[in-house]
């Protein structure tokens, strides 16, 4: 039994054990509930413990022609099967969360975290979890507007990692902050592979009132004008990649130190929203001069037909070296149908991509049909 299976089994047995132990006490039977918004729940009448189980499933059909290729790639994919197990122990402010990924050829552990938040303004989170870089990456997957992240977010964000994070909300949610230290070697590595750590942090202000991490906040009826502005950054290692002549893929040779920043803003009211994120990075190689890179993405959406249909668009760009000519641009448009908010929705997205270099332009396209169920 590997680490993934042990973790999933342990979390499940913990929840079931709490339910059984509570059932054995006739004076205080557990409280059960089930529904679309909160999945399956069971907890103690005195709130001494709580267990919740949910599930996110996404399936996809995609047809694409990569930039510079004449070959058509198409097919079906079970993109995501993620059980979500969460609860609290002893006190409501001591919470835990476990999330595996069961889609793909090999199951893996995405999140295993424990959070102690005795005060709104100060708490601590430990384990493997989403690092606090960019509003888009912090947004729960079921609440994303597009089927996946932009090419700019994929390029510049810090991924899930294992570490410790201090966090808090001040002014009843008007200001939030996170600051953490992590191994810096990514997801599900079982430990640090060197003697260096990565630092990741974010601060966000919401001057017009609290705003949840949701890329389609207008799904809530009568949304008043809301604004969120954030700044995040991380300092850590990046693989140093070389492209030998004749090699089929780049070859890693050591690591470089990099500093990456992101500024993000979300504005929403009524039935529309606009989100913009800008990225900048300076990479310090072990030998040679520093390299500066940048990117940005902007996306907008408008809900129609009593919030059952959304028209959305996104544009994203990446410049891997500001001193060179290479750059990538992706333009996307989509229709999204909502049956029960984010619980049941379907995307139809078209995308066009252009990769520019000194040798010329290479164009590509894709069409994606994706469905999501979140119970």
Question: Would you kindly provide a written description of the structure presented here, covering whatever features stand out?
Answer:
The chain has 375 residues and is mainly β. The chain has helices spanning 3-23, 135-138, 151-156; strands at 31-35, 39-43, 49-65, 73-89, 91-101, 108-119, 122-129, 161-170, 175-182, 198-205, 226-242, 251-269, 272-284, 291-304, 309-319, 327-338, 344-357, 360-374. The chain has a 16-stranded antiparallel β-barrel. Strand 12 (251-269) and strand 13 form a beta hairpin.
Please name the defining characteristics of this protein.
375 residues; mainly beta; Porin; 16-stranded antiparallel beta barrel; 3 helices; 18 strands; 8% helix; 58% strand; globular
């Amino acid at each position: 039994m590997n680490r993934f299976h042990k973790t999933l089994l342990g979390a499940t047995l913990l929840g079931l054990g709490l339910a059984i132990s509570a059932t054995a006490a006739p004076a205080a039977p557990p409280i059960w509930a089930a529904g679309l918004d909160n999945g399956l729940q069971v907890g103690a009448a005195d709130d001494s413990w709580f267990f919740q189980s949910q599930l996110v499933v996404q399936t996809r059909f995609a047809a694409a022609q990569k930039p510079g290729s004449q070959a058509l790639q198409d097919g079906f994919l079970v993109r995501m099967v993620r059980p979500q197990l969460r609860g609290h122990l002893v006190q409501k402010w001591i919470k835990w969360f476990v999330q595996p990924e069961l889609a793909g050829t090999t199951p893996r552990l995405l999140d295993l975290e424990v959070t102690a938040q005795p005060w709104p303004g100060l708490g601590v989170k430990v384990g493997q979890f989403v690092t606090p870089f960019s509003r888009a990456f912090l947004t729960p997957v079921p609440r994303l507007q597009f089927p996946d992240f932009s090419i700019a977010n994929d390029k510049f964000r810090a991924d899930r990692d294992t570490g410790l994070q201090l966090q808090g909300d001040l002014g009843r949610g008007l200001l939030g902050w996170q600051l953490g230290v992590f191994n810096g070697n990514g997801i599900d590595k079982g430990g640090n592979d060197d003697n260096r750590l990565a630092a990741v942090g974010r601060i966000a202000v919401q001057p017009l009132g609290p705003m949840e991490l949701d890329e389609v906040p207008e799904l809530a009826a009568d949304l008043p004008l809301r604004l969120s502005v954030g700044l995040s950054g991380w300092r850590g290692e990046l693989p140093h990649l070389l492209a030998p002549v004749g090699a089929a893929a780049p070859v890693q040779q050591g690591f470089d130190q990099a500093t990456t920043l992101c500024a993000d803003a979300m504005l929403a009211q009524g039935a529309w929203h606009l989100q913009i994120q800008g990225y900048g990075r300076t990479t310090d190689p072990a030998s040679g001069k520093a390299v500066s890179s940048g990117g940005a993405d902007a996306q907008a959406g408008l809900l129609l037909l009593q919030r059952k249909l959304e028209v959305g668009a996104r544009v994203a760009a990446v410049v891997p070296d500001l001193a060179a000519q290479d750059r990538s641009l992706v333009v996307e448009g989509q229709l999204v149908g909502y049956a029960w908010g984010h619980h049941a929705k379907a995307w139809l997205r078209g995308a066009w991509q252009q990769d520019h270099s000194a040798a010329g332009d290479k164009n590509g396209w894709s069409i994606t049909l994706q469905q999501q169920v979140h119970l």
